[in-house]
Design a protein that fits this description.
Elements (H helix, E strand, L loop, with lengths): L4 E4 L5 H13 L3 E4 L1 E2 L2 E2 L5 H6 L7 E4 L2 E4 L1 H11 L10 H31 L10 H22 L12 H14 L4 H4 L5 H10 L2 H6 L2
Parallel strand pairs: 1-2
Antiparallel strand pairs: 1-5, 3-4, 5-6
Helix pairs in contact: 1-3, 1-6, 4-5, 4-6, 6-8
């Protein structure tokens, strides 16, 4: 298909970055921004809600097609375009990738991004400062989630096995932000499997194009 792929969303968003990573891995040219077909769209305005009834991002525009929710968008990109597959052909392995993609989008995102990273990105203290009490409160759950992810990763190269998948595209932006925190060493020790994993993911051409 030669219709332009447009990603509606802010490029700093972890989920928007996941869609961008999928496009980069597939070699798909895309436009990223807060507009569709050159028309600027106000966040949570009428036009945004027409694209995404819950006022979230990303939204994919491809010709006349419109899709919201990151998982379906990534699967659509994988199915529509040539390039390395982001989902295994084996049905069970594909289900495992889908399982972990869903878990990352839901549970991992909630713990790492919503409860933790957003406090650093958009501090909500009375004077605009990071609420360190909220950070300390969330940190045990963050460490527990990272332990779970490290157990799933094990000695594998990628989160679901030997091949890069959409699950990696979903996880990488979250861990990239986490690893950039000043105190990252206490969450992701230098000798941990997850630290090696995010180092590998950052070295991929797709990541060098997206994780800026």
């Amino acid at each position: 298909m030669d219709m332009q792929v447009q990603i509606f969303g802010a490029s700093f968003s972890t989920l928007v970055r996941s869609v961008m990573l999928c496009c980069e891995e597939k070699g798909v040219t895309y436009h990223i921004g807060m507009e569709i077909d050159g028309q600027e769209i106000k966040r949570k305005g009428v036009d945004h809600l027409a694209l995404h009834p819950f006022g979230k991002m990303p939204v994919l525009a491809h010709g006349a097609h419109r899709l919201f929710e990151t998982g379906p968008i990534c699967r659509y990109i994988d199915a529509c375009f040539e390039g390395p597959a982001l989902q295994p052909s084996d049905l069970y392995q594909r289900a495992l990738v889908d399982q972990w993609s869903q878990a990352i989008s839901c549970y991992v995102d909630h713990t790492l991004v919503r409860q933790y990273l957003l406090e650093f990105a958009f501090p909500k203290g009375d004077k605009g400062e990071v609420r360190l009490d909220k950070v300390a409160e969330a940190e045990p759950e963050v460490i527990s989630m990272l332990t779970l992810l490290e157990k799933q990763l094990g000695e594998q190269i990628f989160i679901c096995g030997t091949d890069y998948s959409m699950a990696d595209a979903l996880l990488t932006p979250m861990l990239d932000y986490l690893a950039a925190l000043p105190h990252a060493d206490r969450l992701l020790p230098p000798d941990s499997l997850l630290t090696s994993y995010i180092t590998r993911m950052r070295q991929r051409p797709s990541a060098t194009a997206v994780l800026k």
